[in-house]
Please model this.
Amino acid sequence: MLVASQTEIAALSHTGCVRRTNQDSWSHSVEAALFVVCDGMGGAAGGEIASRLAIEAFGEHLGSLPENRRPAKAITQAVAAANRRVYARSLHQAALAGMGTTLVALVGRGEGEAAVVHVGDSRCYRWRRGGLTRLTEDHSLVGEQMRMGVLSAQAAEASPVRHVITRAVGTQRSVEPEIQAVQLEPGDLFLLCSDGLTRELPDAALAVLLGRSGSLGERNAALVDAALRAGGNDNITSLLIGVP
Model:
């Protein structure tokens, strides 16, 4: 269980070295056992607005529910609420047409269980007993090609369309999230992040940095600093949740 008085959090978001604005948004509430990262997209201020609206709607829908009343259906409804809010705003403001956002979240469900939900290519990882596991599969064009076996991981890294995602919150009338239940163990460390982190750092580099000694804040700062040194070509958001 994510105990409010003991759960440790570290969050950082950086514009990066190339972008002029930060279209990522993040939110965490230890009391509500809700942790979310969104990576927006869209012209003008569209991406920034989309990610913020999605965070707000998702949290409003689930935040009032106790942890033991968050089945997959309730989480799907929260994503639908976020999708409706972003989509409706895009229809009523021409400059925001087509805006959307990824979403990845860790949702506490009580009794030592949480749910990981995602749409798009923002990711969730779990560090447990010295090993790193990626818990999400990218909803992206190259991700789909890799799962079909027509593209290697090396080719995907160099693909000119690696940024193209196949699902997003708010770009269509509806969207299907991917949800999975995860059992929590004391000492687990979860990483929620936008692709600004993972495009610069392979999983092996993430594992090395997460395995270092030091506080969660120090390790999170090391992640973001490493992504900046590697190029910082996109906004970078990293949220760490330590299970007591």
